[in-house]
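Subject: for your reference before the review

Hello V.,

The reviewers asked for a structural picture of the protein, and I figured it would be easier to keep everything in one thread rather than splitting it across files. Below is the amino acid sequence we used in the manuscript, unchanged from the supplementary table.
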Amino acid sequence: MRPLTSLDALDAALATAHAQPILIFKHSETCGLSLQANAEMEAFVADASHGVPVYLVSVQRGRLVSNAIAERLGVRHASPQLLLVRDNAVLWHTSHLAITGDAIRAALERFTLTAR
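And here is what came back from the structure prediction:
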């Protein structure tokens, strides 16, 4: 997962989303549910066959970035939270224990993206 630690990094990630879909994972380092979601995300990322860039925002260390994501993309903040973004639009999002590898793959398939 590629860390998003600044607004410039967020801008670059969103620019990437014009050419291809991206996933943004907002993670709380102090939340048990977020730790479970993070394990799901790590397993998903380990299987690189999906071909979708995955970005990570630590909500503790990147509050400004986390808030900017909510504001720019129009999705109320949650933690943990996963957003599928393309062309500055959120195609799909989920949070908490609904963040699973199966859910991500289903969302990618639903939006006819590269999913295997």
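For the response letter, the relevant points are probably these. The chain has a mean pLDDT of 92. Helices lie at 7-16, 32-46, 63-73, 101-110.

Happy to draft the paragraph if you're swamped.

O.
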